Amino acid sequence: MTQRVFGITGWKNSGKTTLTERLVAELTARGWRVSTVKHAHHEFDIDKQGTDSFRHRAAGAGEVAIVSGKRWALMHELTSEDEPSLDAILARLSPCDIVLVEGYKREAHKKIEARRLEAKDTAPLSANDPNIVAIAADHPVSGERLPTFGIDDIAAIADFIETTTGLKKLT
Fold first, then answer.
1. Between 142 and 131, whose confidence is greater?
2. CA angle 17, 99, 170 (to 5 degrees)
3. Which of 45, 60, 91, 114 would be a feasible disulfide site paired with 10, CB 3.0-4.6 Å?
4. Residues 97/89, Cβ–Cβ less than 8 Å
5. Closest among 5, 30, 18 to 138, alpha carbons compared
6. Residue 170: pLDDT band by 50, 70, 90 thresholds?
7. CA-CA distance, 9 to 19, in Å (whole number)?
8. Average pLDDT score over residue span 60-84
9. Is the separation of the CB atoms in 34 and 28 below 8 Å?
Protein backbone atom coordinates (compact mmCIF):
# COMPACT_ATOMS: atom_id res chain seq x y z
CA MET A 1 0.00 0.00 0.00
CA THR A 2 1.27 3.46 -0.86
CA GLN A 3 1.51 5.83 2.06
CA ARG A 4 -1.19 8.48 1.86
CA VAL A 5 0.12 11.93 2.72
CA PHE A 6 -1.84 15.17 2.76
CA GLY A 7 -0.53 18.52 3.92
CA ILE A 8 -1.83 21.57 5.69
CA THR A 9 0.21 24.62 4.76
CA GLY A 10 0.00 28.37 5.18
CA TRP A 11 1.69 31.39 6.64
CA LYS A 12 2.31 31.90 10.37
CA ASN A 13 -0.98 32.36 12.26
CA SER A 14 -3.03 31.09 9.31
CA GLY A 15 -4.74 28.40 11.38
CA LYS A 16 -2.65 25.39 10.31
CA THR A 17 -2.43 23.76 13.74
CA THR A 18 -6.10 24.19 14.59
CA LEU A 19 -7.10 22.88 11.17
CA THR A 20 -4.75 19.91 11.53
CA GLU A 21 -6.05 19.13 15.03
CA ARG A 22 -9.67 19.28 13.91
CA LEU A 23 -8.98 17.12 10.84
CA VAL A 24 -7.24 14.49 12.99
CA ALA A 25 -10.28 14.37 15.28
CA GLU A 26 -12.70 14.14 12.32
CA LEU A 27 -10.75 11.49 10.42
CA THR A 28 -10.15 9.33 13.49
CA ALA A 29 -13.87 9.61 14.35
CA ARG A 30 -14.52 8.21 10.86
CA GLY A 31 -12.38 5.19 11.75
CA TRP A 32 -9.12 6.08 10.01
CA ARG A 33 -5.70 5.60 11.63
CA VAL A 34 -4.05 9.02 11.38
CA SER A 35 -0.45 10.05 12.04
CA THR A 36 0.93 13.57 11.84
CA VAL A 37 4.23 15.24 11.09
CA LYS A 38 4.73 18.83 12.25
CA HIS A 39 7.59 20.92 10.89
CA ALA A 40 9.06 23.50 13.24
CA HIS A 41 11.18 26.36 11.91
CA HIS A 42 12.71 27.04 15.28
CA GLU A 43 14.50 25.18 18.01
CA PHE A 44 12.06 23.16 20.07
CA ASP A 45 12.23 20.73 22.93
CA ILE A 46 9.67 18.16 23.99
CA ASP A 47 11.55 17.45 27.19
CA LYS A 48 11.78 19.48 30.38
CA GLN A 49 14.90 20.54 32.20
CA GLY A 50 15.47 18.39 35.27
CA THR A 51 13.77 15.22 34.02
CA ASP A 52 15.84 12.07 33.80
CA SER A 53 15.61 11.97 30.01
CA PHE A 54 16.69 15.62 29.76
CA ARG A 55 19.67 14.80 31.96
CA HIS A 56 20.57 11.87 29.66
CA ARG A 57 20.58 14.20 26.63
CA ALA A 58 22.50 16.89 28.49
CA ALA A 59 25.11 14.28 29.35
CA GLY A 60 25.61 13.60 25.63
CA ALA A 61 23.27 10.76 24.62
CA GLY A 62 22.61 10.94 20.88
CA GLU A 63 19.23 9.25 21.25
CA VAL A 64 16.99 8.91 24.27
CA ALA A 65 13.89 6.72 24.33
CA ILE A 66 11.25 7.36 26.96
CA VAL A 67 8.91 4.41 27.42
CA SER A 68 5.84 3.83 29.57
CA GLY A 69 2.75 1.66 29.50
CA LYS A 70 0.86 4.44 27.66
CA ARG A 71 3.33 5.80 25.05
CA TRP A 72 6.92 6.00 23.98
CA ALA A 73 9.01 8.71 22.37
CA LEU A 74 12.41 8.73 20.75
CA MET A 75 14.44 11.94 20.76
CA HIS A 76 17.34 12.12 18.36
CA GLU A 77 19.90 14.90 18.65
CA LEU A 78 21.04 16.09 15.23
CA THR A 79 24.27 17.68 16.50
CA SER A 80 26.22 17.94 13.21
CA GLU A 81 23.64 16.17 11.00
CA ASP A 82 21.32 17.96 8.59
CA GLU A 83 17.61 18.12 9.30
CA PRO A 84 16.07 14.89 7.95
CA SER A 85 13.91 15.10 4.85
CA LEU A 86 10.16 14.65 5.07
CA ASP A 87 10.54 11.32 3.23
CA ALA A 88 13.01 10.11 5.86
CA ILE A 89 10.56 10.99 8.64
CA LEU A 90 7.62 9.40 6.82
CA ALA A 91 9.64 6.20 6.43
CA ARG A 92 10.00 5.96 10.22
CA LEU A 93 6.27 6.15 10.96
CA SER A 94 4.24 3.06 11.77
CA PRO A 95 1.65 1.98 9.21
CA CYS A 96 -1.50 4.12 9.19
CA ASP A 97 -4.27 5.11 6.80
CA ILE A 98 -3.10 8.70 6.28
CA VAL A 99 -0.37 11.06 7.44
CA LEU A 100 -1.32 14.70 7.82
CA VAL A 101 1.72 16.94 7.41
CA GLU A 102 1.65 20.42 8.94
CA GLY A 103 4.08 22.86 7.40
CA TYR A 104 6.65 21.72 4.85
CA LYS A 105 5.51 24.44 2.43
CA ARG A 106 8.01 23.51 -0.26
CA GLU A 107 7.51 19.74 -0.35
CA ALA A 108 5.77 18.06 -3.28
CA HIS A 109 2.77 16.41 -1.60
CA LYS A 110 -0.86 17.48 -2.01
CA LYS A 111 -1.82 20.26 0.41
CA ILE A 112 -4.62 22.53 1.51
CA GLU A 113 -3.66 26.14 2.14
CA ALA A 114 -5.02 27.66 5.36
CA ARG A 115 -5.76 31.37 5.12
CA ARG A 116 -6.79 33.71 7.92
CA LEU A 117 -7.06 37.46 7.87
CA GLU A 118 -4.76 37.61 10.95
CA ALA A 119 -1.97 35.64 9.26
CA LYS A 120 1.59 36.95 9.22
CA ASP A 121 1.48 37.18 5.44
CA THR A 122 -1.56 37.12 3.22
CA ALA A 123 0.09 36.47 -0.15
CA PRO A 124 -1.55 33.31 -1.53
CA LEU A 125 0.84 30.36 -1.60
CA SER A 126 -1.32 28.57 -4.18
CA ALA A 127 -0.20 30.94 -6.96
CA ASN A 128 3.29 29.39 -6.91
CA ASP A 129 2.66 25.85 -5.64
CA PRO A 130 0.98 23.35 -7.98
CA ASN A 131 0.74 20.90 -5.04
CA ILE A 132 -1.82 23.07 -3.26
CA VAL A 133 -5.11 21.51 -4.31
CA ALA A 134 -7.58 23.45 -2.11
CA ILE A 135 -8.00 26.50 0.11
CA ALA A 136 -9.51 26.73 3.62
CA ALA A 137 -10.19 30.33 4.61
CA ASP A 138 -11.89 32.33 7.35
CA HIS A 139 -12.95 34.96 4.81
CA PRO A 140 -14.46 35.03 1.32
CA VAL A 141 -11.97 34.09 -1.39
CA SER A 142 -12.55 35.32 -4.93
CA GLY A 143 -10.75 34.59 -8.16
CA GLU A 144 -9.38 31.26 -6.98
CA ARG A 145 -9.36 28.30 -9.37
CA LEU A 146 -9.07 25.74 -6.56
CA PRO A 147 -11.86 24.29 -4.41
CA THR A 148 -12.39 26.65 -1.47
CA PHE A 149 -13.78 25.72 1.94
CA GLY A 150 -14.66 27.64 5.05
CA ILE A 151 -11.85 26.97 7.52
CA ASP A 152 -14.45 25.65 10.00
CA ASP A 153 -16.13 23.29 7.51
CA ILE A 154 -14.13 20.34 8.80
CA ALA A 155 -16.53 17.65 7.52
CA ALA A 156 -16.35 18.96 3.94
CA ILE A 157 -12.56 19.32 4.11
CA ALA A 158 -12.25 15.77 5.47
CA ASP A 159 -14.51 14.50 2.64
CA PHE A 160 -12.23 16.27 0.14
CA ILE A 161 -9.10 14.74 1.73
CA GLU A 162 -10.63 11.26 1.71
CA THR A 163 -11.46 11.56 -2.00
CA THR A 164 -8.22 13.29 -3.02
CA THR A 165 -5.98 10.73 -1.27
CA GLY A 166 -8.05 7.70 -2.28
CA LEU A 167 -9.08 6.85 1.27
CA LYS A 168 -12.66 6.86 0.11
CA LYS A 169 -13.68 6.40 -3.49
CA LEU A 170 -16.41 8.52 -5.07
CA THR A 171 -19.63 6.55 -5.43
1. 131
2. 105
3. 114
4. no
5. 18
6. low
7. 10
8. 89
9. yes
